[in-house]
Design brief:
Chain B: Its main location: endoplasmic reticulum. Chain B: Keywords: Endoplasmic reticulum, ER-Golgi transport, Membrane, Protein transport, Receptor, Signal, Transmembrane, Transmembrane helix, Transport. Chain B: This is ER lumen protein-retaining receptor. The complex is a heterodimer of chains A (about 10) and B (about 220). With about 10 residues, chain A is mostly loops. Chain A has no helices and no strands. Chain A is about 0% helix and about 0% strand. The termini of chain A are far apart. Chain B has one domain. With about 220 residues, chain B is mainly α. Chain B is built from 9 helices and no strands. In chain B, helix 4 crosses helix 5 and helix 5 runs parallel beside helix 8. The chains are: A little secondary structure (about 10), B mainly alpha (about 220). At the A-B interface, loops of A face helix 1 and helix 3 of B.
Chain lengths: ~10, ~220
């Protein structure tokens, strides 16, 4: 997952 | 992905499966709040709007489909299944969802990480919807907790369902702490505060759930 962001979280 | 987040996702998945198990096998939704289930369907629908446009991983897409599918099928069962719907106690499920949805929508428009009210582009719309789903998820359990206070006897599956639902977000908080210390720029106050509020709403439930487990007595919430 790209550092620092929440995009990969459900 | 870290162990806390994986444990959180699995706990969340388990909570949904426990509820589907209860509804599908014993064909009963006694003690379950339809209002909370409908709010969760809205949470997932507004959070996963970009499910087909932004691909992260097979795991991510699969979990999103499972959460969307299960939340909408639970609502369908409780509303339309001829046997299940009979066990829904609508007189005890009186929380009005709009008093939760409207403030969350307004708050999402006012407070989101994009602060700059740039051109109303699709990305801004998606981000406001995502923030809305974050705030709504924090309070979506309230109708269910109110209903638990009213229905005296809480059956085991319902108790386990609510417990797992609360535990998943607590694990996510550990995940955010872990990511804060292991990744640079991982600062998301909005997510952290709403996740904390969400978990704190379960505090008294956790207390009584633990007491009932420790004393091996039926789970009872004080009126």
């Amino acid at each position: 997952s790209s550092n620092g962001d929440l995009k990969d979280e459900l | 992905m870290n162990i806390f987040r994986l444990a959180g996702d699995m706990t969340h998945l388990l909570s949904v499966l426990v509820l589907l198990l209860k509804i599908h096998t014993i064909k009963s939704c006694a003690g379950i709040s339809l209002k909370t289930q409908e709010l969760y369907a809205v949470v997932f629908a507004t959070r996963y709007l970009d499910i087909f446009t932004s691909y992260i991983s097979p795991y991510n897409t699969m979990m999103k489909l499972i959460f969307l599918g299960s939340s909408f099928s639970i609502v369908w069962y409780m509303r339309y299944h001829k046997i299940v719907r009979r066990s829904y106690d609508k007189d005890q499920d009186t929380f009005r969802p709009y008093i939760l949805m409207l403030p969350c929508l307004i708050l999402a428009l006012l407070i989101n990480e994009k602060f700059t009210f740039k051109e109303i582009s699709t990305s801004f719309f998606l981000f406001v919807m995502w923030t809305f789903s974050l705030y709504l998820e924090a309070v979506a359990i309230l109708p269910q907790l109110v209903m638990l206070q009213r229905t005296r006897n809480i059956d085991n599956l319902t108790g386990q369902y609510v417990f797992l639902l609360g535990a998943y977000r607590a694990l996510y908080i550990l995940n955010w702490i872990y990511r804060y210390f292991t990744e640079e720029h991982f600062v998301h106050w909005i997510t952290w505060i709403s996740g904390l509020v969400q978990t704190l709403l379960y505090a008294d439930f956790f207390y009584y759930y633990f007491q009932s487990w420790k004393n091996n007595v039926k789970l009872q919430l004080p009126a």
